[in-house]
Amino acid sequence: MAPQVPDKQWAQVVEQKGGPPVYKEIPVPKPGPDEVLVQIKYSGVCHTDLHAMKGDWPLPLKMPLVGGHEGAGIVVAKGELADGVEIGDHVGIKWLNGSCLACEYCKTAEEQLCAGQQLSGYTVDGTFQQYAIGKAAHVTNLPKDVSLDGIAPILCAGVTVYRGLKESAARPGQTVAIVGAGGGLGAMAQQYAKAMGLRVIAIDGGDEKREMCEKLGSEAYIDFTKSKDLIADVRAATPDNLGAHAVLLLAVSEKPFQQAVEYARPRGNIVAIGLPAHAFLKAPVFESVTKMINIKGSYVGNRQDAAEAVGFYARGLIKAPFKTVPLKDLPKVFELMEQGKIAGRYVLQMPE
């Protein structure tokens, strides 16, 4: 028997580009033929949500907008063509809400490159609401014995950094430098890297983030606010002073993207993941060529990446550091985010 679904719900709605989000009652949406309606229990808050509110990126921005793309909850309704998921299943709604499933990229498991992709909390309403819509083919099945609050950040932060580490081609025993290691993405990246047998150099700023990174098992912490020569410090933290085999750029400012070539070792792979607004990748041509550096982007993950990332968490290999606050406190979370004062992840709890 399907659960009773109300007509109204509480949500955080951005009514005009730039915000702020407004906590208000809105109608509960109804799923289309290939969609499911998920009662969201928890939703992580990502820096992307702040970019979405501001309309920072050259993507079509829905307005008014319900943000959010790390939603974990329970399926309460489904369309007649929604296969592979049943009412009562625990599922996650991610950044990639839907894709065409028919283009070259969808057919080769690169659906994040689909020209017809739908993005939760940017081009379609996301998970900062009690009930959210997801395409049945793209929701991620979650184990029922795993807590929904802790697994919510895996649905973006976890999947994104896991895919980035795969793109880095770093092998067990090699060193990866993680820039922005003390943030929500960075905390996940350190743990996935360690679970994959990699050695971690954490780069970030502040003593609170140092403490967190050291607890997560980083072999070295480089504080960019105190370092007199960040390049030399990173190289010195590698076993042979040659630099990192791989660099994951999770920063939300441009400067770290310009520095990475200098502390990546020859044949090193630099993976850009963070999306600072209006930023550019620049690298010295001489060092890039003579060190044979590979610079590439990594954009979220596909459906299999999501299943694998959830599997790491379900096996107890990832413990995402998070703080839980009520949905109504989203503006306070954004304020802390803009001030760079968040270590780990904030997770919003939906009202009952």
UniProtKB/TrEMBL annotation:
**Does the keyword section mention Zinc?**
yes
Entry keyword NAD: yes
UniProt KW keywords: Metal-binding, NAD, Oxidoreductase, Zinc
> Which EC class is the enzyme in?
oxidoreductase
Residue intervals of the Enoyl reductase (ER) domain: 18-348
Q: Which InterPro entries match?
A: ADH-like_C, ADH-like_N, ADH_Zn_CS, ER, GroES-like_sf, NAD(P)-bd_dom_sf
For this protein, the record's Pfam families field holds:
ADH_N, ADH_zinc_N
Q: State the GO CC annotations.
A: cytoplasm
Q: GO MF annotations for this entry?
A: alcohol dehydrogenase (NAD+) activity; zinc ion binding
Please give the CDD domains that the UniProt record associates with this protein. CAD3
Q: Which family does it belong to?
A: Belongs to the zinc-containing alcohol dehydrogenase family.
Q: Which cofactor does it need?
A: Zn(2+)
Query: Can you name this protein?
Result: alcohol dehydrogenase
Q: What is its EC number?
A: 1.1.1.1
